[in-house]
Structure formats: structure tokens, C-alpha cells
């Protein structure tokens, strides 16, 4: 069965995997250095270096390394001032982690549909929600129906393509919302002349196994706000108020990345431009190879965007292609090619029942039709041609039968 491997894990046998790590540089040397020097835990030169280099790459003033992107989201929301019973706007179509992180703060996600062109948070719908469903009371924005404060918006740059941030930032300023950017899938993407992750008030990255660079598991918070960065460092390291006497004035978290993982991250960061170039070349080759296939719609890149093309994802129109996306998944799986649908829209998740309202026809259509194709940085052109040929063959077979 395809699609059963975890993030970045190699699938069984000789399958072409969806998206696996590329380890071809100084990873061994840097990790060995940690082992040789005994700096293997949560303190060490590589953790500090990884933070500095990632912040520099993104153009942020501060960075705080965490055990995962999900932990980074949790802490980013806390330092941004999200409190119990607040509400936070989240796109309906995303991996579930941002909605979960909102709940870790005992706040509530408000799901907003995505737009049909680039599949990102629909800013017009955000505007309508803020105008029609919210009211300013005692200096803060509240949702009329729940009476709760609406504190933040959490745009996710889905699949490596940036959200149209300028109009969203305008809305956030107008309504007093904090912008927590989920850039976990979009390291290396650009919005106009700015890097994804340096667009909102605070942002997070993930380095799990299927991301552009990986530390096995890991994450990063980036922000220009010194106070927030200091607080994030404090909360991710058990909220320690005295280094010797075990004084803790707040409930903290054991969320800090280890030096061994950061060593891997430093090595991975060294060839990031090559990685982005590889992703962009993969996208171009898929575009060239699939552009004339009837029933397959290709993803678009906005004029103001440079996508990181995390997972190249197509839409399969059942009527025109002859098979639906899940049948194509099975057919490619039989041919040794791992593909994956997009996430079940979050308003349909029992984990977040009661958080929703509104229409989600775009998220639902994308969930039904989308299929992500193998997109590893190390995907060879031969492997990619096989994916293209098998996809074309699936249609040809269906047309004949
Ligand atoms: C949109 C989004 N947010 C958050 C995460 C969570 O990152 P992690 O797996 O590092 O916890 C992911 C990860 O896979 C993601 O795709």
C-alpha cells in the first residue's frame, strides 16, 4: 500500500518515495563532532549556530530552535499573546498541526477556506469574516457568535507557495490581529522580495524528514521581536528562572532541539540554494511532462511568488481523466510510485469538531482531486520520467478499457 510511510521515511522496496531526506554533505562530520566532544544534548555550538544561520537566511533578527515545527507553533502562539478562549484564524486546508497548536493554548481555531488559484488562505473570506462576523468591544476584536476575542491569524504557506501576505497584513493591522506565519512547508520561498517566514510578526519552520532541510525532527521560531524571542527561549527550556536552584515561576516546556540534530541542520543548510534549485527543476519537469494530459490540472505560481515547490501537487479531474485521484494513487502505487492526497479539510476533522462555520467548497474539492507526486530533492530525472510515464499510462489504460 502506498502512502503508509511516515514523514520522510523510505517506503518499502524500490518504490519512488514521495519526499525523503537528502543527506550528502557534512552531516556525518558534524554529528561525529558532537559525539566526539560529548555535546549531544540541548546545549552546544551547533544549536546556537543553526539559529544564527537560519535567522540570517530568512532575514529575521532572532531564531529559537525547537524539537518540532508543532512545538514551534505552540510557543509562537503563546509568545504572540494567544490566551485561553481566544480565537485564531487558520486555513481549512493544511496539515492539522496549526489547529492542534491553537488548541494546546486552549484557544479555538476558526477555519477559513482557501482560494482556488494558488490554494492558499482566502484573504477575501478573511476580510468578510472580520467585517461581517466580528465586532470591536473594549478595544479588542470579538466574534459575535461566540463572544470570544479574535487574537491572531495563522496563514500557512501551503505546499511551499506563499500566501498573498500584503492584503492580509493590511487586514491584520486594521483589526489589531497578530500574524503567526506557518512557514513549515516553505523554507526558501519568496513573497515579492521577502522570504517566507519574514512576513508576519512571528513565524515557524519544520525540519521533519520530508522538509527541504531536515534534522530528523525539529523546528524553529523566527521573529524580529527581541522580547518574544527571549520568552520563546525561556518557555522552550522549562521556564528556568535560576540556573542552579531550580526556580521555575511558570509552566515551561522541554522543547529545545538537541545539538546532534542541529549539527545535521547546519550541514543541510549549507547547500540550501541547490536544494531549492532542485525543487524548482522538478516542478518545471513535471510541468513540461504533464501539461498536455487531459484531466490533470497543474499548480500555478503567482506572479508575486517564488514557490519552494515542497510537494508538486496536481488535480485529477475524474470525468476528464477517467480515474479519480485515489484510483490514480493506487495505480501509481502498483507501479512502485508513492503519491499522497492533500489533507482532509480541518472542518471535517472530529478532533476539531465545533470549531468551524462557513463554506469550504475549495478545500473540499482540492482534498478530493489533489495528488502530490514524488518531490524529493534527490529525485533523479529518470525516476521523474517514470512518474510522468506511469501517470500518462494510467490515463491511456483507462481510456482503452
Ligand atoms: C503546515 C504544517 N504545519 C506544521 C507542521 C508540523 O511540523 P512538525 O512535523 O515538525 O511538527 C507541518 C509538518 O509537517 C506542516 O506541514
Q: What is the 3D shape?
A: globular
Q: Distance N terminus to C terminus?
A: 24 Å
- Helix proportion: 25-40%
- Overall pLDDT: 95
The set of bound ligands, ions and cofactors reads: pyridoxal-5'-phosphate
Q: How many whole angstroms does the radius of gyration measure?
A: 21 Å
Helix/strand/pairing category:
alpha/beta
Plain-language structure description:
- This protein has 401 residues and is of the alpha/beta class.
- It contains 13 helices and 15 strands.
- It has a seven-stranded mixed beta sheet with strand order 1-11-10-7-6-2-3, sandwiched between helices. Strands 9-8-13 form a three-stranded antiparallel beta sheet, with no helix packed on it. Strands 12-14-15 form a three-stranded antiparallel beta sheet.
- Helix 1 runs antiparallel to helix 8 and helix 2 packs parallel to helix 8.
- The longest helix has 20 residues.
- The site of pyridoxal-5'-phosphate (PLP) has 14 residues, from helix 3 and helix 4.
What structural keywords apply?
401 residues; seven-stranded mixed β-sheet; alpha/beta; three-stranded antiparallel β-sheet; binds pyridoxal-5'-phosphate; 13 helices; 14% strand; 15 strands
Amino acid at each position: 500500500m502506498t502512502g503508509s510511510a511516515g514523514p520522510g521515511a523510505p517506503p518499502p522496496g524500490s518504490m519512488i518515495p514521495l519526499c525523503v531526506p537528502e543527506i550528502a554533505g557534512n552531516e556525518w562530520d558534524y554529528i561525529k563532532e558532537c559525539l566526539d566532544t560529548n555535546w549531544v544534548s540541548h546545549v552546544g555550538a551547533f544549536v546556537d549556530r543553526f539559529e544564527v544561520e537560519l535567522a540570517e537566511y530568512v532575514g529575521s533578527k532572532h531564531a529559537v530552535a525547537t524539537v518540532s515545527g508543532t512545538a514551534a507553533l505552540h510557543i509562537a502562539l503563546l509568545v504572540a499573546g494567544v490566551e485561553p478562549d481566544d480565537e485564531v484564524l487558520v486555513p481549512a486546508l493544511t496539515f492539522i498541526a496549526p489547529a492542534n497548536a491553537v488548541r494546546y493554548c486552549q484557544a479555538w481555531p476558526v477555519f477559513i477556506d482557501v482560494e482556488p488559484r494558488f490554494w492558499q488562505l482566502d484573504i477575501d473570506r478573511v476580510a468578510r469574516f472580520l467585517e461581517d462576523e466580528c465586532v470591536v468591544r473594549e478595544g479588542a476584536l470579538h466574534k459575535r457568535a461566540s463572544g470570544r476575542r479574535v487574537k491572531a491569524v495563522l496563514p500557512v504557506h501551503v505546499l511551499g507557495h506563499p500566501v498573498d501576505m500584503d492584503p492580509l497584513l493590511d487586514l491584520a493591522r486594521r483589526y489589531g490581529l497578530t500574524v503567526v506565519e506557518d512557514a513549515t512547508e516553505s523554507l526558501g520561498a519568496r513573497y515579492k522580495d521577502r522570504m517566507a517566514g519574514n512576513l508576519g510578526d512571528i513565524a515557524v519552520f519544520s525540519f521533519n524528514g520530508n522538509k527541504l532541510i531536515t534534522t530528523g525532527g525539529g523546528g524553529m521560531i523566527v521573529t524580529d521581536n527581541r522580547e518574544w524571542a527571549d520568552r520563546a527561549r525561556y518557555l522552550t527550556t522549562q521556564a528556568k528562572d535560576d540556573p542552579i536552584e531550580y526556580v521555575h515561576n511558570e509552566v515551561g516546556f522541554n522543547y529545545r532541539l538537541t545539538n546532534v540534530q542541529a549539527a545535521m541542520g547546519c550541514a543541510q543548510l549549507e547547500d540550501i540554494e541547490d536544494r531549492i534549485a532542485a525543487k524548482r527543476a522538478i516542478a518545471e519537469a513535471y510541468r513540461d511532462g504533464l501539461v498536455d494530459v487531459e484531466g490533470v490540472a497543474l499548480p500555478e505560481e503567482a506572479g508575486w511568488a517564488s514557490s519552494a515547490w515542497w510537494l508538486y501537487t496536481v488535480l485529477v479531474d475524474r470525468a476528464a481523466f477517467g480515474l479519480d485521484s485515489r484510483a490514480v494513487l493506487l495505480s501509481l502505487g502498483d507501479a512502485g510510485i508513492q503519491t499522497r492526497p492533500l489533507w482532509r479539510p480541518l472542518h471535517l476533522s472530529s478532533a476539531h469538531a465545533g470549531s468551524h462555520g462557513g463554506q469550504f467548497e475549495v478545500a473540499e474539492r482540492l482534498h478530493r482531486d489533489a495528488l502530490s507526486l514524488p518531490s524529493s530533492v534527490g529525485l533523479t530525472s529518470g525516476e521523474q520520467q517514470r512518474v510522468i510515464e506511469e501517470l500518462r499510462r494510467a490515463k491511456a489504460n483507462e481510456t482503452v478499457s
